[in-house]
Amino acid sequence: MDDSPVKNTFADFRAPLYEVKANLFKGLAHPVRIRVLELLSAAPEVSVSDLLTATGLEASHLSQHLSVLRRYQLVTSDRRGLQQFYTLASPLVAELLAVARGLLEEVLRTTKDTLGYGPSAGTPAAPGSGE
User: Fold this and answer.
1) Smallest Cα–Cα separation from 89: which of 71, 67, 73, 65?
2) pTM for the complete prediction?
3) Which of 1, 34, 97, 111 is the most buried (most CB within 10 A)?
4) How far is CA 87 from each of CA 7, 44, 49, 75, 80, rounded to the nearest angstrom?
């Protein structure tokens, strides 16, 4: 996994769009970061302390993931007093997560149907039962 500073292809407007997109997906390429984005999608803003509670991570690990999300311009932060609050950088991030969920649900349905686990298929025969 490459969490090094964003290469020029993310900020370089001359880079091919597919390279810029690939770099965006690098920012999404960790389950913790997806979880953080989902939490931020569900609320206008979330404090770091609430993110720590929801993810169960140590502060240093969460900080690293939030840094990656900021670097890829997926979240913004705002310090108020001693508290740090995070928000999605754009509502399109929540939309992207929703589209990904829809795609995964469709893939799962198709896979279940292909394997005979669809609603009309009933329960498949047990392995080795001769059916």
Assistant:
1) 73
2) 0.76
3) 97
4) 24, 6, 14, 6, 13
